[in-house]
């Protein structure tokens, strides 16, 4: 009515003509739709196909088709006469087929961006577990399919998917099944989509308060309008509605304020609405209410009856009426040029003649927006996000809380004013809709086999990794110089560590090494001072000096292992240790061989006497040491040790250490020492019971047993420790094995030399051998 009145007042559009309209009921089955279409085509009398009983006021275009089903049902008949049919319902790609529906024009914008808009809303509030409800028709199926694809791309899962039918309330079993499915679902958010007629049956059905605990997302084509006094409508309180953006039509509010059935008594629809809205009757004595006031105005009504802003569907109808008017205007202009004498008479107008003008029509409506009916020029819709709010006094309101602009730059297309949203009464605040609980920082998502991606367990982050956000798919590794805190939420800087002199362990080992080295020097001094006594002279005095000197250096070489690793001490620590221990062990081997040769030299005619002197044993020590020196030289030339950083062994520390370079060379040095030690132990063990007055083979056997025990224990312990403790194990092994040699071989002799000098004589020893 608003558009028709504006056009009839416009002197520049269809001048000297009056635009009118007929209103017919649209039914929801094919038979009644065809019947209604035939009544419209034939006139108000009996329906006679191919005949028209209307002599005046013939219609030349149909504006209708709130649903695709109605459009198709009417089109099957209207297409026979090539009647233009302009639909104001949701855009349907199937109706855009020019071969199948050449006379159908769609006013609505394409809603291909609606699934994306709804998914943006879900992502904003982190709703990842959503139910889907749709009417049973092909268009709704396509929408749900597109919505699911967009949800999958954004890791949002479908909690359930359910169709509803036009007569759902009449089928109690199906309604019970639907409500049970809704009740059992853990989804708090449900998208509902479909044609108005099907959803009306759910809207006005007396369903329990199962719906009350859900938030509904829908489009404005599900016309939420409160039925007065209808308590179940609170179930949809707080719903979020995506409505096609419309522009403000100048004069529309004035039209609503001034419209009155008294001005248009033939409009029975307006009269019936007026009587219902104001609770009055148009005539005295007709009905129970009072007579309607002639000054009544729609702007005094609640939203339950009328919205003073034009809805998106009304906006589409408004544009459709103008499109017809402009098409007629263009057609008459063309005719006036061809035939100057028409006098504005439209008796020669046929509906099919309007197609060429409708296909090419484009104009700016009164709001300044461009309107185009060309089949390939339908723009993509933009949406206002409306919040549906109901009140206890039977009033309701739609509040704009956001918008979605499909053509806007990425990240700016979705706007929401969260603070202005009124949530369902059981919420009070935006609640999550999830299949699983939130994985807090320090945990990551662990997928469950056979479950949707939204249903998962939360597993702690692995060692060395963190997650500082909720619902992380994977944890992040800390940089090499950092480590996770106990909660594995953020990384902390690692502390640099090594076996330092300043710490207790390093200080203790250094003190022990220095003390034992000093003790060895004292023993050497005692032996030098009493060099002419029988005990000192026994088993080659020079070898004893050499052994004590090498043991003193063995204790001191352990200091290379303490302190911050540098290139110099990394090169010296293992090679010095290997050479000094080789000197010590080869000296012991030479002393043991000396015992055997000394025993054989006592036999008459023995050739072993020439080997008992000091030159032979010293030569053996030099030869054995030379082999070790060559091994160390090859090691240093080919793959020398170097300072290194270990960031993996200790999760909380960066360990400064010496990389041995070549493990083969390192274990070759140790293996050679082990070979000499095994040889010394074997010879000493075999010679322990030789009947010689000065036989010290028993002491050597015991000392080598201690030495071998220490280093056999060293290998597994060394491999199982990391960082500075590994260094401490090697230092301890060096000190304990060296101390074992010193204590087992020389302490008993020092005891006799210092505390029992009377026993340190040739006469006493011949009577009481030290063995």
TrEMBL record:
One of its GO terms (cellular component) is plasma membrane. Its main location: membrane. Keywords: Cell membrane, G-protein coupled receptor, Glycoprotein, Membrane, Receptor, Signal, Transducer, Transmembrane, Transmembrane helix. It is found in: Cell membrane. InterPro entries: ANF_lig-bd_rcpt (IPR001828), ATPase_P-typ_TM_dom_sf (IPR023298), GPCR_3 (IPR000337), GPCR_3_9-Cys_dom (IPR011500), GPCR_3_9-Cys_sf (IPR038550), GPCR_3_C (IPR017978), GPCR_3_Ca_sens_rcpt-rel (IPR000068), GPCR_3_CS (IPR017979). It is a multi-pass membrane protein. GO terms for molecular function: G protein-coupled receptor activity. Pfam families: 7tm_3, ANF_receptor, NCD3G. Residues 505-769 form the G-protein coupled receptors family 3 profile domain. The chain crosses the membrane at residues 505-528, 543-563, 575-599, 620-638, 664-687, 699-719, 731-754. Belongs to the G-protein coupled receptor 3 family. PANTHER family: CALCIUM-SENSING RECEPTOR-RELATED, VOMERONASAL 2, RECEPTOR 118-RELATED. This is Vomeronasal 2 receptor 572. The lineage of its organism: Eukaryota, Metazoa, Chordata, Craniata, Vertebrata.
